[in-house]
Amino acid sequence: MIGQGEEEDVKPDILLMITPQNIFRHEFVGLHVEVVASSHEGYKGLKGRVVDETKNTIKFEDVQGNEKIIPKKVAVFEFTLPNGVKVEVNGKVIAMRPENRIKKRYKKTW
Amino acid sequence: MLHLNSPGNYGGEIILFFDFHVNDDLKLVDEVERLGYGGLALFSNSKENKHENASGSGTSSRVNSIKIYKGTLIHAKNPEIMRQKVKKSRKKAHVIMVHGGDQKINRAACEDPQVDILSVPYMKRRDCGINHVMAKKAAHNEVAIELNIGYLTKTKYYRHYKVLSHFREILKLKRKYNFPLIITSDAKSIYDLHTPQDLMALSRCFGMERGEAENALSETPLKIIERSNIRNKVVVEGVKLID
Fold first, then answer.
1. Residue B57, pLDDT above cutoff 50
2. pLDDT at B119 over 80
């Protein structure tokens, strides 16, 4: 178990590690997320802290403590990075297993 | 100075019209302003000046009520050179236009999302230069196809009729595949310029409806500029930074 002091030591590294340039390759668990657009109206506006991720879904916990499971492909997510920067990610880009996301080659096309 | 038209007012909604292919000249900027446009993109021919991106250099510093955007017109012999030139000048210009005509260049331009406008794909051709494959690609990559009124008005007899039929063919593909279409004047002197209303009326000659013509003169240029503005914030396709 990580003690309180150790956690504080780790935090600055995390701040440096997750950037908008690597967010789609990085671990989402622990980040704050909000659904900003979706083909299903009911998903819009849902927000919380990511607790789990599968190939096709993201599970997050909202303020009331309820767990919500959102399919990735139909939604656009807004992630807040540990340093406060907000990044909008289309669910189609991250619709694969987290361990496979680092393998995929992403190209800036425009 | 006599202003012919204010920006179009249709049912309480103000529409700003743009001319996205104008030669880099101070007289033309004043004339475009007088004709009631909301903005323009200035191009200088890289072939003539041998400077890749000299456009807008003199005029962008002037104070005008209309918006002036910097454009680069790219002439390339083959698709590889085209891609290199596009990559090189992408950050320097708001609007990148590729001079078409050659089938390979037309296709490469449609497949490149960094290109904003494919200019005159029908130049010196027997067909319109666009087929269903390119139309799909252009729609996916949001590459606007140019209907060059300057080219239409400068041709005569057989070529004139051919250009009109090319425009009709492009319009037919647009209705099916829904790629962006843009009407430009390609003005090199003030006498090449027309009011937006004239262009809309002229576009009826090749079967364009009023709404389509309005979109080609107003909505497509606005989308190009919007895309140009958010380009720096996009990390990869589908990932972008929020302020």
1. no
2. yes
- Nearest chain B CA: its distance from A41 CA (Å): 20
- Interface confidence, given as ipTM, is 0.80
**Which residue has 């087929």 as its token pair?**
B131
| CATH code, B16-234 | 3.20.20.140
Task: With respect to residue A43, please indicate whether it lies within any of the assigned structural domains.
Answer: yes
Considering CB atoms only, which of B114, B239, B241 is closest to A110? Answer: B114
A20 in contact with B at a CB cutoff of 8 Å?
yes
pTM value is: 0.82
Its domain, for residue A84, covers: 29-101
Q: Which of B86, B91, B143, B239 would you mutate first to test chain A, the one with the most A CBs within 10 A?
A: B239
Q: Which ranges constitute the DSSP H helices of B46-183?
A: 46-49, 79-89, 103-111, 132-141, 149-154, 157-177
The number of distinct structural domains making up chain A is 1
Of B6, B20, B22, B48, nearest to B192 by C-alpha is: B22
Query: What is the residue-wise DSSP string for A33-45?
Result: EEEEEESSGGGTT
Each residue's pLDDT tens digit, A68-87: 999 999 999 999 998 889 99
In a domain, A88, yes or no: yes
